[in-house]
Design brief:
Blueprint: E1 2-7, H1 18-22, E2 27-30, H2 37-44, E3 49-51, E4 68-73, E5 76-81, E6 98-100, E7 108-112, E8 115-119, E9 133-140, E10 143-150
Parallel strand pairs: 1-2, 2-3, 5-6, 6-8
Antiparallel strand pairs: 1-9, 4-5, 7-8, 9-10
Length: about 160
């Protein structure tokens, strides 16, 4: 089994609740709207980080992050983009097992035509009345097990 932490929309805020929730993951995927480079530096203390740029990620520091990325972890193909509305490929035809996105701040787990779509929600500043969340994705021999975790935040 391979455990992957999935986080998005930190908007320069890495809450203290994130680190213990991600403890023990093998990798972390950040689906954009990082906000500041120190967010990635802090996540790297937990596990290796794969990150893409979101619409608020501007400036010289953000140029090192691509808009999208396809990776292989645990024998699975994972496509990462920030805004699902900007998906310009057919994941099923491209052999993608998981599409990870962010942007909406709304956590969602959905399987369409055999492809898992995972939005971990927002782990940064609370937006409206949406929950503050992240996800853990377990890759096992028998399948994919995504779980959304609410962070116990004071705000």
């Amino acid at each position: 089994m391979l455990r992957i932490g999935v986080i998005s929309d930190t908007h320069a805020l890495l809450r203290p609740e994130v680190e213990p929730r991600l403890a023990g993951v093998a990798h972390i995927i950040h689906a954009g709207d990082i906000g500041r480079p120190d967010v990635i530096a802090r996540l790297r203390r937990i596990a290796p980080v794969i990150a893409i740029r979101g619409n608020v990620d501007t400036g010289d520091w953000a140029e090192r992050y691509p808009d999208t990325q396809t990776i292989r972890l645990g024998g699975r193909s994972i496509y990462i983009l920030h805004n699902l509305k900007e998906l310009r490929l057919d994941p099923g035809l491209c052999g993608i097992d998981v599409v990870v996105c962010g942007h909406s701040h709304r956590p969602q787990i959905e399987t369409i035509d055999g492809v898992l779509y995972l939005n971990p929600g927002s782990a940064g500043p609370r937006r409206f009345k949406l929950p503050v969340t992240l996800a853990i994705l377990e890759l096992t021999a028998s399948g994919l097990r995504p779980v959304i975790h609410r962070l116990a935040c004071a705000d």
